[in-house]
Design brief:
- This protein is an all-beta fold.
- It folds into five domains: 122 residues, Immunoglobulin-like (Sandwich); 95 residues, Immunoglobulins (Immunoglobulin-like), CATH 2.60.40.10; 99 residues, Sandwich (Immunoglobulin-like); 100 residues, Immunoglobulin-like (Sandwich); 94 residues, Immunoglobulins (Immunoglobulin-like, Sandwich), CATH 2.60.40.10.
- 0% of the residues lie in helices and 56% in strands.
- The protein is built from no helices and 42 strands.
- The strands form ten sheets. Strands 1-38-37-41-42 form a five-stranded antiparallel β-sheet, with no helix packed on it.
- The chain is globular and about 75 Å long.
- It starts with a strand and ends with a strand.
- 33% of the residues are buried.
């Protein structure tokens, strides 16, 4: 059974980088804690502390009220300082409504991974009306094939910080979205929107107006729709915009292939990345390759040895970043790598983790020992460990000792709040070339008992613990669809496990809720593109485990369907 657009708790849009969560040399981004402060009838502040070894890209806090679905959803961008981020959610941005609000927190790292958590907040009703931050009349002048001018009356008792006028054409979604900054003089903000900044297109344009005051508050949004006439206007010369041109594939053999792309970056090139993976087994072999740049050309040779030596269909996406931090519209290629006629390498010659054993198990902890193989030499072995109780609030990245082909570490329960019950340890093996072996993990049950240094009163009997879920992963990825699988912990039982899926194109017009098949603590479902208008490109997946109708956990990811 599938339900379309029926869950009040689902996000109506997503800002994403087109890649599923991946394992790289950095630990996965995670949310450590969240809190709500400054709560009043005017709004509330959402605070988040996170860990992002790869660096944080942005923190988004989409917010809406429970009343009338998501008719007032706004994607707020939080201010980031170190490993914390904060945003004040003004009720003025949400029709001034009181009552139940929902804020989801997305922390994106610089490798495209993200962590997700939700907060429910009750905003009390206001006892008095106020004339606050607001946008007044909006007018359109100077309309021609060349563009149009947007002028808005504004009121900001605390002073104006900035006025933004994001604009896009209705053709092809928001592929030409530009966040223009308006000029402000007194109580007036204005900006001339040139069609040359939007591919020289005519037809329907949309401009939204964001007014921020000096207190960081956002006025209720306003927007206008404008029809730009066609005419003899010369669109901006392609060479003046950040873009990726022709892409070619050469040197194709069983050993790999070379990707070469023409690029244009008027502000200068910061970097060009070429994430690559095979269609077999999802993105288990995803590697973010950095291309070499010379003049207007970026190139990288993709060796099949970096992708398990597999033949068959490969996908390479191209990310061009300029010195202003902007990202060009993405391009990608699919390449068929032929099978090799040579004998494949012996498994022992590859970076890998072998048998894993648990010894010295007691209430005090346990020892993890793993056989390892690293032909290029071992850089380090990490064993991140946490208990199933309360999510990953006690996550510790332990560094193992290495001797020859063996890595070992004693996990002390005192380092994890002295808790008994279910523990999880993952094993990360890095070689001297900076590569990461395929991960392995173990689940261990630590018995209760006298535990020096541990916390007291710990209860891990049946039905205790908290609802939790690991990051979803994808298999069976092809042009026809993909399989989503999650592992979860529901000590008090669960009502249902569902996955909401939609494509990034055209909002949530193809949203489908897929019911997942559950076996033990694992749930899975296959997502066929035939149920999503047969679209390719970026798919957004939010997996939910519901303990009740109102209590749930969720994890999100994006999947690039070739």
């Amino acid at each position: 059974m599938k339900r379309r657009k029926t869950a009040a708790g689902l996000l109506a849009a997503s800002l994403l980088v087109g890649a599923v969560p991946v394992v790289t040399n950095a630990a996965p981004v995670r949310i450590v804690s969240t809190s709500i402060t400054e709560q009043s009838s005017s709004g509330y502040r959402v605070n988040v502390t996170f860990s992002a070894d790869a660096g944080v890209s942005r923190v988004m806090m989409p917010t809406w009220t429970e009343a009338n679905g998501q008719d007032d959803i706004v994607w707020h961008q939080a201010s980031v300082s170190g490993n914390t981020a904060s945003f004040y959610v003004p009720v003025s941005a949400h029709k001034g409504e009181s009552g139940a609000y929902i804020t989801h927190i997305y922390v994106y790292d610089r490798q495209g991974q993200f962590a997700l958590k939700g907060e429910n907040v009750t905003v009390p009703a206001s006892t008095s009306a106020s004339s606050g931050l607001s946008i007044g009349d909006v007018s359109i002048t100077e309309l021609s094939a060349s563009g149009y001018r947007v002028t808005a009356k504004i009121n900001a008792p605390s002073g104006v910080s900035k006025v933004l006028m994001p604009t896009w054409t209705n053709a092809n979604g928001q592929d030409d979205l530009v966040w223009h900054q308006a000029s402000v003089s007194g109580d007036t903000a204005t900006f001339y929107v040139p069609s040359s900044a939007h591919k020289g297109e005519s037809g329907a344009y949309t401009t939204h107006i964001y007014l921020y005051d000096n207190a960081g508050k956002l006025a209720p949004l306003k927007g206008v729709n404008v029809t730009v006439p066609s005419g003899a206007v010369t669109p901006s010369v392609p060479s003046s915009s950040l873009s990726i041109g022709d892409v070619s594939v050469t040197e194709l053999s069983a050993s790999g292939y070379r990707v070469t792309a023409k690029i244009n970056a008027p502000s200068g090139v910061s970097k060009v990345l070429m994430p690559t993976w095979t269609n077999a087994n999802g993105q288990d072999d995803l590697v973010w390759h950095q291309a070499s740049v010379s003049g207007d050309t970026a190139t990288f040779y993709v060796p099949s040895s970096a992708h398990k030596g597999e033949s068959g269909t490969y996908t390479t996406h191209i990310y061009l970043y300029d010195n202003a931090g902007k990202l060009a519209p993405l391009k990608g290629v699919n390449v068929t790598v032929p099978s090799a006629t040579v004998t494949p390498s012996v498994p022992s010659s590859s970076l890998s983790i072998g048998d894993v054993s648990i010894t010295e198990l007691s209430a005090s902890g346990y020892r993890v020992t793993a056989k390892i193989n690293a032909p290029s030499g071992v850089s380090k072995v990490l064993m991140p460990t946490w208990t199933n109780a309360n999510g990953q609030d006690d996550l510790v990245w332990h560094q193992a000792s290495v001797s020859g082909d063996t890595a070992t570490f004693y996990v002390s329960s005192s380092a994890h709040k002295g808790e008994s019950g279910a523990y999880t340890t993952h094993i990360y093996l890095y070689d001297n070339a900076g590569k990461l072996a395929p991960l392995k993990g173990v689940n261990v049950t630590v018995p209760s008992g006298a535990n020096p240094g541990g916390s007291s009163g710990n209860n891990n009997g049946s039905g205790t613990g908290v609802l939790s879920m690991a990051i979803p992963y994808v298999t069976e990825l092809s042009s026809n669809g993909f399989r989503v699988t999650i592992q979860f912990n529901a000590p008090a039982g669960y009502k249902k496990v569902s996955t909401a899926v939609w494509t990034a194109a055209n909002g949530q017009d193809d949203l489908v809720w897929h019911n997942m098949t559950v076996s033990g603590n694992t749930a899975t479902c296959y997502v066929p593109i035939s149920e999503h208008k047969n679209e390719h490109g970026s798919y957004i997946v939010n997996a939910y485990v519901f303990e009740t109708d109102t209590k749930y956990v969720l994890q999100g990811m994006t999947v690039p369907v070739p």
